[in-house]
Each structure stands twice: as C-alpha cells, then as structure tokens.
Amino acid sequence: MRRAVAVETPVALASFVGREHEVAEVGRLLASTRLVTLTGAGGSGKTRLAIAAVQAHAPAARSWIELAGIAEPALVPQHVAEHLGLRELRGGAALEACVARLRDEPHLLVLDNCEHLIDAAARLVEALLVACPHLQVLATSREPLAVAGERAWLVPGLSLPPREAPSEPSASDALRLFVERARDVQPGFTLDASNAATIAEICRRVDGLPLAIELAAARVRVLAPEQILARLHDSFRLLTSGSRSAIPRHQTLRATMDWSYALLAPEEQGLLDRLSVFSGGFTLDAAEAACTDAQLGAEGVLDVLARLVDRSLVTMREVDGSARYALLEIVRQYAAERLRARGDESELQRRHAAYVTTLLADAEPHWIRASRPPWLARVHRELDNIRLALAWTRDHAPALHLELTGRLCWFWFASGAWAEAREWSEGALALPVATAPSRARAATLFSAAVIACMQADAAVARPWLEEVIALAGAHGDAQLVAYARNYLGMALVHLQDPASEAEIEAALTWFRTHQDRYGARLSLLLLGSLEIVRGNVARAVSLFEEGVAVAREFGLPRELAIALQMLASAALQRDQPADADRAAAWLHDALVALTQDPQYYFLARSLDMIGVLAARRGDAEDAARLMGAAETARRRIGARVFPLDHRIVAPWIAQLRTSLGDAGFDAAFAAGRALSPGDAVEHALARTRPRAAASPPTAAPASSSPRTRAELVVRGLGPLEVICGERRLDRDAWSSGRARELLLYLMLAPAGRRREDIGLAFWPDATAAQVKNSFHVLLHRLRKTLGRPDLVIVEDERYRINPAVEVWFDAAVFEREVRAARRDAPRLSAAIELYRGALFDGEVAGDWHFARQDQLRMQYHDALSALADLLLETDPQAATRTLEHLIAEDPVREDAHRRLLLWYARAGQRDRALQQFERLAAALRTELAAVPSRATVELVERIRRAETV
Amino acid sequence: MSSSAEAVLQTGEIETRYVRAGTGAPMLLLFHTALTDPLAAALFAQLAARYRVVAPHVPAGVGSPGMPLATWLRALVDGLGLVRPTAIADESLAGTLLGFSLVDPGRVAGVVAVCRDDADPATSVGMLHAAHGLLVVAVDSAEQPAKSAELAIAEIVRFVDGGSA
C-alpha cells in the first residue's frame, strides 16, 4: 500500500526566507503539545511557517489537509477522510474511519486554513485527539480552535531591520524577503546604501507582514523604493486619517492590497476579480473558459495571468507537468469582494458551473476506459470546484445541477465518495426539475442506484434502475440501458431474485456487441457470482476466467485484481490441491495489481483469501494473522465482508478457533490486526508463490512505416513541417513561435529536459521564478496548439515528448538510418533524402540549436561522402553527382574535391580535374584563407605531368 | 463552539489562558480573573447564548512596565483572530481598554466599562454615560451584590444587543 495514506506536505510556492527562530519554536511546541494552532492575520505567513516546521520537525507519518476550498462545515470530516485515502466510506462514517486510521500509530495531521470552518474543525480535532492517543494536530487559522489542550501561537511579523544598520539583510528576515522577492522580478536588484533605509522603512511600515512585503517587492521593476514607500504611505493615511501610528495587522495588509490592486492595469484587476470564483485552484483552461470579458478574450488570459503571478497576487505550482494556479485565500477573499462590488458574481458563478459541466462531459467517456486514471486525478483535483458548482447550481440552475449529478456517477463510483454521491444525487432527484422524464433524470437516478448497489442497498436501487431502463430506452440511450440492466442484475442477485440472470445476460450481449470491456467484465463476474450461489463452481470458474481475460484486455490494475480475486475465491471452493496452487498465484497477481491502485476493501479481500489458503495448508496461526490484517484494512473504511466471501471465510475461522483454541486464535488475529497495511501486503506476497507463466499482453509490433501511423510527425530538416493527428500545423496555427521552438527543443531530447535546462536555453537571464512562470505559459501554448495535452509529459522532473505516443521525427530517423546503412547504398540514399536542409532552417530559435544543426549537417556530409564511396564501384556517374552535391554543400571539403579530381583524371578528363583543383584552392582561399594540403597538391602535380594516378 | 474548554494562546513570551464559547459577533470579556469572577462567569454564560465570547485570564506580569497591558491586549486580539469585538472590561482594566479603543478605534466595535462603586442601591446600576459605542456601568458590590450584578448584566446585554443589531 504505497500510495494509500500519504498526503504530502505541499512544496512552498516560493523560497522560505528566514524564520529560523519561529521554526524552532513551533518544533518545541510540537514536542510538548498535541494540538498547536498557528494564528495571525491573513498574509502573516502561517501556512509557510507550518510547511517549514513540518519539514523540519514532523514525523514521517503526517498528512497535510487544506481546508480553504471547503465551504460546508459538514464536509470537514469527509474531506479529511478523503485526504487520508479513506474514500470507500459508507453511511457517513467519515469520522469513525478517520479515528480507525489514526488511532494506532503516531501521526501528525496538519489542517491548513481552518478559520472559516473553525467550529467544525474544532469538533473534529477534539474527537480525533480524544480517540487517537498518538495523534498530533498542527492547525493554521486566523482564530484558534479553542479546544482543551490547544496551544495557539501568534505568528509574529518578520524581524525588522535595525534603524542603525538597515543595509545588512542578514539582520532582518523582512529585509531578506524583500530583496529575494525583488530579485524574482528584477534579477539585478541589489540592496545598497542608496535604497536600504527606504526598503527598511517599507518593511517597518507593513509591520513585517510577509505577504505585504511580497506585494511591495513585486513592484520594484516599475517603481523605485521611494515611490513604493510614498504610495504605501498614502494608502495607510486613508486608514488612520493621518492621526496616529499603529494600525491593525489585518488593516495593514488590506491597505497594501489596495495599493497593489490600484497599480494593476484594468484588465489585470478584472481577471484577478474573476479568478476569485474558483475554489481550490484552477488551470489555464479553466481561466480561459470562465474568466474572459469584453476586453479580455481567451487568447489574452494567459499573458494577464502571467503578469498577476509576477505581481505575487496569483501563485503557481506544477502538478503532473502542468501549471495549476491559485489565489492565496486572503487575496481570493479580497478579489471576491471586488467582484461582488462589480455586480458580476452571479454571472461568473454561472460560467464557473458551465466550465465544470464541460470538464465532466469531457471526462465522462474515460471513466469506463483504460484512460481513466489521469482523468480521475484531473477531476479529483477539481473537487472543490465541482462541489462549488454543485452547490451553486442546486440553488440557481437546477437543470444544470441535475445534469452535473448525472455526469458525476462514475467519478463518484471510482473515487469512492459514495456517501456524498448519494447525498447529491438524491438531493437533485428531489428538485422539481427532476420530475420530468428526461435523460438527465435517468442519468442521476443511475448515479444514485449504482452507489446504492455498492452499498448493498438493493431494495432501494431496484426501482430506480427499472425506471432508468425505461427512461433511457425512451431516449434511445442503449449504453445506459445496458449498464442499468447490469446493475439491476446485481441488485436482483442480492435480492435472490431469479430474474437477475436475464438482465445480466442482456447487458453482456450489448457489451460484447459494442466491445465494451468494462461492462462485459462486470457482467461476467456477476454471472460467475450467480453460479457460485447456485453451487455451480465449475461454471463460475469458467465465467471468472473469461472475466479475467476481459479485464486484462481492459488494462487497468484494479479491475484485473477484482477479477482475479473472484477467480481465486471460486477455486477455493473446490477441494483440489491444484486449485489451491492456482488460487495462490491468482491472489498473488491480484495483490501486485492492487499495490498499483490501492483500495482497502479489495486488499482486505485478498488477505482473507490468502488466509484461507494458509488454513488449507495447515498453518493455522498464519491464517488467523492474515485474517486479522484483513479486518484492520476493512475497519479503516468501515466496510463489511462481502456476503459471498463470508461464505468462504467463516467456516475456516470456526475451524481455526478449534485448532488454535480461542486464546491462540485471538492472539494470532490480534497480531495480524497490528500489522500496517504495507507490512500485511509484504507478508501476504511472501506467502503466495509467484506465477511462473504469467503472460503479459504482447505489444503491437512496431510499424515499418511509422510516418503513416505516427500521431505526431515533425520534419525539422529543412522547412519545418508539423502534423499532429490529422492536422497540419502551419505557421498560422501557432500562437507563439517560442512554443514551436519548445517543441523542437524537446524533439531533440528524447530523454527529456529539466525545467532548469529549458530555462537556460530559452531565458538565460531570467530568475528561477520567472523561468517557472514563463515555461508554463509556453508549455500551455504548445499543448494547446498541438491539441494533445498528453504529448508533453513530465517524468522524474524531466519534460519530454510522451514515449507512449508514436512520433516520427525526421532528424531522429535520419541519424538512425545513416548509422545503420553504412554499407547499404539504397538505404543510405533514402536516409540522405530525409535531409531537405539545415535543422530548423528558417526558424527563429535560440543558440541552443546551433550545435545540433552543425552536428546533423556534418552527418549529412559524411553520409554523402560515404554514399559516393559506395557508388564509385557501381555507378560512377551517380558518385560524381553525389560528390558535386557534397562540394556544393561544403565548398571547402577537400577530401571530396580530391576524390572528384582523381576520378576525372582516371576518366581521362585531365582539364576538368585541374579545374576542380582550382575550385578547391579558390574556396579555401576565400573561406578559410588557406591553401590545399600537400597531398592534394602532389596529386595535382602528378595529374599535370600526366602520370598515372 | 458550544464548549468552553480552557485553551492557551502564546503571544511572544506571554501565555494567556482563555475560554471561548458560542457563535456570533465577537465579545471579549476583560476581567483579571475572568475564569472565576462570578460577574464575568454570569456574563459569559448569558452572552455565549448569542455571541462568540472569549474570556482571557490576565497572565501574571502583564501590566508591569516590561509588559504593558495595551501591548498584551493588542497581541491578544490579533492572536485570537477577533475582528472588531465588543469589549467588556472590569474597572481595573477599563482604563487600558478605553485607551486602546481611542488609539485603535478600528479594533473594537464597542466598549463596556464595569465600575464597581457604591452607587445608589435603589438603582444599583448607575449608567454614567451611554453614547454610541461606549457604555459605562457601575455595579455596587457592597450592597445587594447579586441584584446589582443582575441589573448590570441586563444593561450590558441590552447594550451589546443594540450594538450588534
């Protein structure tokens, strides 16, 4: 279980400056207190201090949970549970599941941005601390949680520079931060005697508030420090009526934000306001879709957004190789106020909901295909936005709300957010708009019914599914009919209704006809389960084997693991030694698959089955231990044993109790329960033999003519030609020449390039922060132009052309073919034909490409030379043409001249040979101020003397 | 937050114990012994039904030259995340609170100063001055203390209800 419970501490968006004393103090508090809350005004640096403190002091087992995106207090326990990897919750058991997860091991739970949910967060923390003796909590909030045992700590302002020596940055964290952020926007910025006192005064004026200092420093490119101070002073005078000194920290920040906002261009102000509509961050696509206006079209959003990043008003981080933007919560609230004041809030929320709907519509086909994982991750990242859209549409756009709940079915199913799924979908069905017999009603009914089936709520699901079948049929949606019949079959199996088989068979027929492997796999497993209930194990094994085969074709590990488990469970119902061996191998493979896509429910199932295998072997103690580990995994998500599995496991437990005695069984079972999921998996894998002859799916043979199959074709030798899919991307298709250059740069580096390398090649004078911002702007443009976000990926921090995509690049083929065809004239000739001109001929590209251009040109010349050598024996005329061509390409290539004049001489064309020599001498004189080599001169002398050469 | 468990706020080197209860507009009860003073306790219970009430216990050392009350109070308001609370101060702290509210008028929404003097027992509470944002009440702690406190509380509740309406 490598990925089940790790919730990474976020990487600070910008470098963390100073605060050594504060980091140590938080560490000291954490060492002595179970609940520490960092308090202070927005912008005082609570989150960044928490990140630094956690990285410096926290134990390995820790979870970072951001609450800013949650609006509903009731969702807090569920949100925390989800981030702990507990998604398969049933019946709102989120708090219980969190307790089960955190009860037994030391763990630091970090709750960031609690203030808007303070009471809900306090209730959760109080309950968790009472129930989990090894748990510690670090919270950030403008207001303490105020629960027993809490130690709230007011995060102080950054240390201010002493008045007597303001130009020494090391003496003040505030000064260091100002200088560092100033250098982000103006690399040459320095602190010296001429500006130190002014900058120190700026830091003092903003009370050492980190965000205020950043906002001020971000302006050094256009304003001198004196101007910054003067304008800040004007803003603050408005607050204080010019009468007194101190102003509250939150008002200090407010005034700084007013100042920073006033300096923005109108289009920047407008975009910042509109971006406040997002919750939990956003992508460029989202901003372009929802945040345009009459003055700022989609094509202009990127530039304005990049400027807002430069001004420290929008943050950017990289997620799976793409940029994800966010407004700091304090900035988001500020911008939201402005948006409301403009009267645009409702329109933006409508557009936000429309964007979310489009995203879910795009994702929908992928839920039941092997392309699901990246879409699941992508949509999961937008969960806060989805919930926001759900809440807004419920109150303001019920028809869209119904559409959303229908489109979310498979996402909810796959992500395990079952309780939430029921709540939203049943809520939507209760709206007046849902009474019409629409396709949207059918889809939402299906959402509710699928989850009800998974929750063994078959009696509720049955009438819903029957209505879905009728409605979807009336609307001509055969796929929805098939899936509804499949799940109706599942519900009927649970209800022990013999009509189940006909429904599943009907669904299977449709899935087979339409090559829907996801559906077919599920039908086969259901039919197999039905045969188990009937006692027809042989028929069940046959169906499960077919299910495994289809699951392999489908291609995702979780689906394969489930099918293998079903097959193994059937085999375990037979009392054949060979079946036990096969079951062990299947369960081993299922466990291996589950480590790639962990889910506690199915992990528990594997552990139980492997426990049964151990019991059959006579290893009673190990069997009890494995079953104890299974119980722990189930308890983490509040799940129960699947009824069919219970039929297998329960008799063995009774037998184990007999053989070990109650005390012996309980001790071994408890030892298993104490195992961590990771240790339990390792143990179970060791207890199951690896399969000897598992045959991985064979890859399709490489095409012999890649250009005809390639998804991306790039011809860079000579005039540039890019074809992506069916589209030829001529110059008009590119919004930016630099995006085209980035493509070429990556094409030449199949193993990928680090962002730092790309920065050096494209923006050699920029700071790291500028490179990060500029790079993601460029990457976005490239992906947008290609129309394939997956063509450029990031692996091990290297950006590269996706190796899974079939690409044809003439330069790469040229190099490979020239190497391979040294003694093969036709093949070499074909390779040479690929070289239509210099690399990226006519393109505006940075210095980075010159070395490769020269290298490829040299290879081309060498290839011409080699071809001439090969042709001299068989086709001298062609050889001389090749040499002439080589000389035209490289007039000072002396070896080519010499071979040519030698050939002329041998052919009796002495005058022509001597002319050739004169051409060489002239070229050398003109181009290199050199003379022909001694060997050439001697050869020519012999030719002049009419000697045999 | 319905519970009123004791928690600790650390501002610099100062540790302040406090209790908090209720939801709504913020109220700050400033009594030297807010956790035990009967008047403070009664006020806390009544106000917590409709407001978010915070009652700190003034730490030892605060009020000394090294740690002025006003400095402590400013950090306390920041650390507790109180945005424009109505502050109700016992007479020994009322001066500091009034000074604070004059220097930082944006920090408090209203000020109530409780004066424990020998007011006329017939009225028990003498409202010395009631103006926008400021109420000063006197409580006779010598005669009929319970009755006096009850009337004072009623007056204070009327004031803060009006102020937050």
Summarize the structure.
The complex is a heterodimer of chains A (949) and B (165). Helix content of chain A is 62%, strand content 6%.
Structure write-up:
The complex is a heterodimer of chains A (949) and B (165). Chain A is α/β, with parallel strands linked by helices and 949 residues long. Chain A is built from 43 helices and 14 strands. In chain A, strands 2-3-4-1-5 form a five-stranded parallel sheet, sandwiched between helices. Chain A has a four-stranded mixed sheet with strand order 10-9-8-14. In chain A, strands 11-13-12 form a three-stranded antiparallel sheet. In chain A, α11 (266-275) crosses α14 (329-342), α29 (600-617) crosses α31 and α40 runs antiparallel to α41. The longest helix of chain A has 31 residues, at 643-673. Chain A is globular and about 110 Å long. The termini of chain A are far apart. Residues 1-7, 239-246 and 691-708 of chain A have low confidence and may be disordered. Chain B is an alpha/beta fold and 165 residues long. In chain B, 33% of the residues lie in helices and 30% in strands. Chain B has helices spanning 38-47, 69-79, 91-103, 145-164, and strands spanning 6-11, 14-21, 26-30, 52-57, 86-90, 110-115, 125-131, 134-139. Chain B has an eight-stranded mixed sheet, sandwiched between helices. In chain B, a hairpin with a 2-residue loop joins β7 (125-131) and β8 (134-139). The model of chain B is unreliable at 119-132 (pLDDT under 50). The chains are: A alpha/beta (949), B alpha/beta (165). Chain A binds chain B through residues 29, 39-41, 115, 118-119, 122, 126, 141-154, 156, 239, 244, 246-251, and chain B through 1, 3, 5-12, 18-20, 23, 54, 74-75, 77-83, 103-104, 106-107.
| Mean pLDDT level of chain A | 86
Sheet with the most strands, sense and barrel status of chain A: 5 strands, parallel
The N- to C-terminal Cα distance of chain A equals: 77 Å
Stated plainly, the CATH topology of chain B is called Rossmann fold
Large-scale geometry of chain A: globular
Shape of chain B: globular
